[in-house]
Here is the input.
Amino acid sequence: MSLQLGPFSQHPTSLSLKAFFYTRTPMLLIDPGGVIVDTNAATRELLGLDLAGCKGQHYTYLLNRLRPRTEGPLLPPVGMASAHFATPGDDLYARRMPELDTVDLRAAVGECRYHSARYGPVRLRVSEVPCIDTESGACAGSLASLEVTDIPTLTAFQGGVDRRLGHEVMWEVYAASYDRILPELPFYQEVVERHYAAMSNPAISTVLDIGAGTGSVTVRLLGAGKWVTAVDVNRAMLEKMDSKREAGWGDRLTVIEDTAERLPHLRDGAFDGVTVLLAFFDMDDPIAALAEAQRVLKPGGTLVVTEPRACFNVVELMTAAEEALRARGLLDRLSGDWKRIQTVAPLVRDAVQNTQSRKVAAAAKQDWHAEAIFDTLRRDGFTGLTFQEAHLGNCASITGSKGSLGGTGGKLR
Here is the structure.
């Protein structure tokens, strides 16, 4: 299993990981080889899709991605990276845990201007501090902070960071009870089985699971011998998936902790099948994610998507879920989990309504829902399309095969 769950995972506690992740200053953790091993939510808010695919890559990959938008060095020229981190291919690239001179034990500071796609020109004070391994005294990497010193939309940026942090906490709460409540709900299991069945054709060997969550679909597919790449931006969900590891999976599971709105590390036509179960609605740019899903699907490959319909009603779903738990005699035993789900439900409702009511892409000028996805896939040349109601009519599952010429647009009209 390839699981990207955070910085210097051999040492820190989960609490220290959370402290890093929820810090409101954008930060990057870089290992001694110059590889970005973790970023935090504030960094994702600031850099947006410019950061997609950078985790697990050498720092120079991010520099190259940001170069068209950056004036001045993003990395301090006298910092740890320039002194000890070599570029890929260099003999020093593989060197680990370099020894430091006393002069290195300081913060290196530089400034640059970054043109954010979301917030406009931002002046950054970038500081890099070495992280020391307490047992050996050697360098275990560095921490780079991207302090915002000037931004024309400060209030908007601060609000964006607050919303992102709140959103991550929401899914942590949800993840805690997800696996105990949802498997007991017939309408949820019906959809999981539908996605599994869509990928069960023996001709489908490699599958991309977008918004894999705790692995409801991924685990089923691995049990059937498939090779699965699971993508999810939420580490709490992925930690739950990681807890389900089985020896028989071997290296058939690859987990990517990143947004699915841009997947630069995945090549065109890499997968026989793509499954997306209730994930697009919670993305900043679901149109971009749908386009990526189509891009990485090979011609003739199968795509199955379940998303809220235009008529989505979370109150109806919650009422039905409670009745199902009560009918099975599980409501009392799962009362704590059910209360957590109840606190998250209004936030999920708001996420669905926000995505459906706003124009998810300026060029599209179209609301987002399952019906629109069906029309998009039909225009993009998908064949054999089916539209099946799900979640008591509040959602729908769309299944189809990518045509030989279409399937790279993903634009709603």
Q: What stands out?
A: The radius of gyration is 22 Å. The chain has a mean pLDDT of 84. The chain has two domains: 14-152, 165-401. The CA atoms of residues 261 and 289 lie 4 Å apart.
